[in-house]
Amino acid sequence: MTDFQMLGISSEQIEMLKELGIHTPTEVQRETIPVLLEKKDAIVQAQTGTGKTLAFLLPILERIDPEQTSVQALIVSPTRELARQITDDLTELLHKKKHVHALSIYGGQDIEHQLKKLKHVIHVVVATPGRLLDHIRRNTVDLSNIRMFVLDEADQMLHMGFLPDVEEVMQQLPSTRQSMLFSATMPQEIKHIANHYLIDPVDIQIMGKNITLEEVKQMVIETTDREKQNQLMTVLNQFHPFLAVIFCRTKRRVMKLNAALQMNGYEADELHGDLSQAKREKVMQRFRDMKIQYLVATDVAARGIDVEGITHVFNYDIPQDVESYIHRIGRTARAGGTGIAVTFVAPKDKQYLTIIERGIKTKIKKKTL
């Protein structure tokens, strides 16, 4: 009997998981799947990269009734990238379940195309809050038969100002639904949503092995704003990353750094909120296909990036809180691999370094060039 079988996952889904190279459940999957299969509400606190997407997708697929033609499960995520990532995972799991249909709904897609798709039988909807509300107001999506609802990356919804939209969506759902809330951190506003909208939820906290600390080699390079660009290029030449994500604080800084890297012959491209959806998808595809080596990105644009083979993360601009730091460096060391995270720290950044080191309970090694 496999571990997934003991959790209550059907042999059909286990076969699919094996084809995808997944044989053993992660901690968040072991803790969460049995609770969700019992149809209980749950609050799951777990970092990105711990396998939480499968922790909710597998129980949802166990309970979808293909004979029923209405939408039965709704997954709401904060960004298009994350919605696409969840949909990609879902599509892989549905490879042999031809009778179960999923649709992703997010801004930047052609709304007419979405309207056409919504006229067909859809069982699972993955959506961002804004575009979903748009469809609810047009009466083009029917949520009256939703039995399972997932709010993913709830803390990121809060940071991006989407909580009012999320509450409006939740008010439209049947009161008999099962609700699952996933969040890396648990700010007061998220606790309020959980208390208000979830019924007697099971509280699951995955605090064990922290991927960011154990599998990522972290280092700090002390620099100045004037020197930072040259020092980044020196480090890239020394480390020869296979694939790397370089984080900047703003869209403008992303564009400026990407232009400088391209001018100096580096295979780089940019990812930020000002790009059209088509352009963002094209950039991500080129990165996945290894046609570009360096992806220069803002935090929000890089949400949901789960690309195999990212060996390095560079914090060109230091993140200002520990959660962002953990999310960023979690882009590397995926699926049991190891990675390197390099953070550039100018004198004015010292306070943020202190916050991060306190949060991860580790002094990060300083390196000078």
From TrEMBL:
Keyword Chaperone tagged: no
PANTHER family tied to this protein: ATP-DEPENDENT RNA HELICASE DEAD (PTHR47963:SF8), DEAD-BOX ATP-DEPENDENT RNA HELICASE 47, MITOCHONDRIAL (PTHR47963)
Organism: Terrihalobacillus insolitus
Top EC category: hydrolase
Motif (Q motif): 2-30
Helicase ATP-binding domain span: 1-291, 33-204
The protein's name in its UniProt record: RNA helicase
Entry keyword Disulfide bond: no
Domain DEAD-box RNA helicase Q per the UniProt entry, residue ranges: 2-30
UniProt GO BP: response to cold
Domain Helicase C-terminal, residue spans: 235-369
GO MF term (any one): RNA helicase activity
Keywords, in A-Z order: ATP-binding, Helicase, Hydrolase, Nucleotide-binding
InterPro entries, per database record: DEAD/DEAH_box_helicase_dom, DEAD/DEAH_RhlB, DEAD_box_RNA_helicases, Helic_SF1/SF2_ATP-bd_DinG/Rad3, Helicase_ATP-bd, Helicase_C-like, P-loop_NTPase, RNA_helicase_DEAD_Q_motif
SUPFAM superfamilies: P-loop containing nucleoside triphosphate hydrolases (SSF52540)
GO terms under cellular component: cytosol; ribosome
EC number: 3.6.4.13
